[in-house]
Amino acid sequence: MIERSLFYIAFDSSWGRQMRFVCGPRQSGKTTLARAKLKEADALKLYYLWDLRSVRNRYKANELFFTSDSPAKKGQKQWVCFDEIHKLNAWKNILKGIFDATQEYYQFIVTGSSKLDIFRKAGDSLSGRYFTFQLFPLMLKEVIGHPKIDKAECDNSLDFVLGQMNRQSKGVQKALEQLLVYSGFPEPFLSGRAEFQRKWSRDYLDRVITEDIGLLTRIADREKLHDLYQLLPEMIGSPISENSLAAHLESNPVTIKNYLRKMRDFYLAFKIMPYSRNIKRALLKASKWYLYDWTRVKDPHKRFENYIAVELNSRLCAWQDLTGTEFSLSYIRDKNKQETDFLILKERKPWLMVEVKYSDASIEGHHIAVSHILGGIPVMQVCFEDNIASQEKKNAFRLSASRFLL
């Protein structure tokens, strides 16, 4: 089993009594993560899948049914996992009652589909009783067996860059290539078979649209939602106009905006906004969208950029969970339509620029010029080629992804 970075973050004792809500894309490994924690705590019998009628019937007979499987122990909290409980209409009240009655003796992990993340935003019946963590597709660090993330790496951007420049990446390139081919979802990645990956990816989309978005939202035209998703791979790396998408699909921009929002809520895709010191101006500019299943992007250059976007998004979420500091991902586009693929913001201030190239090349001058405007923050150009690690100018570096992502 591949160890996940979130294991060491979400289950740290410093989070105290709060329930751990684990959200993320369907089949990203949330249940496996929770069961790994239960196994470590010798508590596998305290895993409950609320899809099963037998579990629901036990709850109806006794609200604290799980305590009979492992009675409370003095001075020792036991881990319990409730999987897919969010499918019950009154799940928040159920959790509130259970938590309030047993929090002195049990610690709770609550996992489920991305719908759990949507529902938690409505109402405050669980306020102060949980922390939310997101589990994304596999990161390169996890695949090569180094899942732990050091919170110190996000203190200073130049120190982070220099640290990555000196990483040892022997044998990592092969793992990177496998991720690009088979995706970061554990099942197709571990299968190592292109045929399996293609069928898995096709069925995955149908399940999310039909079973999650189609049944749990008011969207009736699932076919148009499917068509919209099929358009996104060709637009990776480019600002997306909702008006042009609407015209292409013979719909209206409001509907397209709603469909894109649902794709984000159900972890099919995510967007990054253009950076602007004037927030109102940024909101008026087009966003870029990236897919969690980057294998749907056929062009190798665009697929690599999409993959880097997912890795950066996952890393920033981990840093945010570790430190409580706000990190976010944006992109830069100047008046001459020259772009830098990614800008990492720390507490909404520019922290690190990241340009993505499939092949190694000199850093273009406009990236360095923008860096000066933003206060001299480092520029990191990341490429697919292996064994690249060089400094081009002050605070301007070129590096292989096989080192940058470790």
Structure in a nutshell:
The protein is α/β, with parallel strands linked by helices and 406 residues long. 42% of the residues lie in helices and 18% in strands. The strands form 2 sheets. An 8-stranded mixed sheet has the order 7-6-8-9-10-11-13-12, sandwiched between helices. A 5-stranded parallel sheet has the order 2-3-4-1-5.
| Overall 3D shape | globular
Q: Work out the helicity level.
A: 40-55%
The rounded Rg comes to 22 Å
- How many H/I helices? 17
Q: Low-confidence segments, ≥5 residues, pLDDT <50?
A: none
Summarize the main sheet.
Answer: 8 strands, mixed
Give the tally of structural domains. Answer: 2
Specify the structural class. Answer: alpha/beta
Description:
The chain is α/β, with parallel strands linked by helices. The protein has 2 domains: about 5-135, Rossmann fold (3-Layer(aba) Sandwich); about 140-405, no CATH class. The protein is built from 17 helices and 13 strands. It has helices at about 5-10, 30-40, 55-60, 90-100, 115-120, 140-145, 155-165, 170-180, 185-190, 195-215, 220-230, 240-250, 255-265, 280-285, 300-325, 365-375, 400-405, and strands at about 20-25, 45-50, 80-85, 105-110, 130-135, 270-275, 290, 325-335, 340-345, 350-355, 380-385, 390-395, 395-400. The strands form 2 sheets. It has an 8-stranded mixed β-sheet with strand order 7-6-8-9-10-11-13-12, sandwiched between helices. The chain has a 5-stranded parallel β-sheet with strand order 2-3-4-1-5. Helix 12 (about 240-250) packs across helix 13 (about 255-265). The longest helix has 24 residues, at about 300-325. The radius of gyration is 22 Å and the shape is globular. It starts with a helix and ends with a helix. The model has no long low-confidence stretch (mean pLDDT about 95).
